[in-house]
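lol forgot to send this yesterday, sorry. struct tokens for the thing we talked abt
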């Protein structure tokens, strides 16, 4: 008797169906967040305890998913709520110390664990004031230094990025005798100096960053000492001097005529005075 082909196919199908429990397999979960292929930007002023992001994942079998963060270093900064996938910040970020983090997150369907690395970029905030270098600042210049002469340069840097890291200099309060180049910090004589009038200037340099919302600034002192130049002739007092000398007088001696002269220059007068601008 000839076998019915339909019966054999049906038999095979019944055979495969009987094996199906053995052939079932778990399908893996996978992350849905776009940033696993790109990056997350978190600003450095994000507060501890704030929610940074939420992990999203799907499981083809609709298994219950458990989220986590992998590694000791990443766990210092981030905590993940296992059921919801919400990511919390655990530690303050500082872009000036660490500007980028590689963080590995995990999702599990309780049979398999899938991991994905996220590149976290720490965004800059203007949180550093300028810092002056090579202090204290002091310079000695002769009183005949011509106007327009650069006499000193101050230098400050700022660790922030962009305008928040760009320093502008000024005198605070402004000086009548000296100017400072805002961008370069070069101090220049602005008008003629006179040791006999003012021997020293104490100026305050203000370095401020250019952040438009919350600029930060720092002050530094600049001491300018004016040195003397022999720029004044002696002045004779009690003029005119006259006396009679008789022909039989003894030779002229110092006791014969006493002339006092006053040198008005620096080292003879005003020795103990201080003048400040
Ligand atoms: Ca699964
Ligand atoms: Ca910082
Ligand atoms: Ca900063
Ligand atoms: Ca700054």
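and heres what i got for the seq, position by position
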């Amino acid at each position: 008797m000839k076998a019915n082909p339909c019966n054999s196919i049906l038999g095979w199908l019944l055979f495969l169906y009987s094996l199906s429990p053995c052939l079932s397999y778990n399908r893996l979960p996978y992350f849905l967040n776009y940033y696993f292929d790109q990056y997350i930007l978190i600003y450095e002023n994000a507060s501890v305890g704030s929610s940074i992001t939420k992990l999203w994942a799907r499981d083809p079998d609709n298994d219950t998913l458990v989220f986590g963060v992998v590694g000791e270093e990443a766990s210092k900064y981030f905590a993940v709520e296992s059921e919801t996938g919400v990511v919390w910040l655990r530690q303050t970020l500082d872009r000036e110390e660490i500007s980028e983090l590689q963080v590995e997150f995990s999702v599990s369907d309780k049979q398999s664990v899938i991991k994905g690395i996220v590149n976290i970029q720490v965004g800059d905030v203007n949180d550093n004031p300028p810092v002056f270098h090579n202090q204290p600042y002091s310079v000695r210049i002769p009183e005949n230094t011509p106007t327009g002469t650069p006499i000193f340069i101050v230098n400050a840097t700022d660790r922030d990025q962009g305008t928040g890291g760009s320093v502008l200099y000024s005198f605070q309060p402004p000086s009548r005798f000296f100017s400072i180049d805002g961008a370069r910090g070069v101090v220049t004589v602005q008008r003629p100096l006179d040791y006999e009038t003012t021997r020293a200037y104490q100026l305050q340099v203000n370095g401020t960053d250019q952040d438009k919302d919350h600029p930060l600034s720092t002050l530094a002192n600049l001491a300018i000492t004016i040195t003397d130049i022999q720029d004044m002739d002696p002045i004779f007092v009690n003029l005119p001097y006259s006396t009679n000398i008789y022909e039989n007088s003894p030779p002229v001696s110092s006791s014969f005529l006493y002339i006092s002269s006053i040198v008005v220059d620096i080292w003879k007068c005003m020795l103990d005075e201080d003048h400040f601008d």
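The chain has three domains: 30-123, 131-227, 234-271. anyway ping me if u want another try
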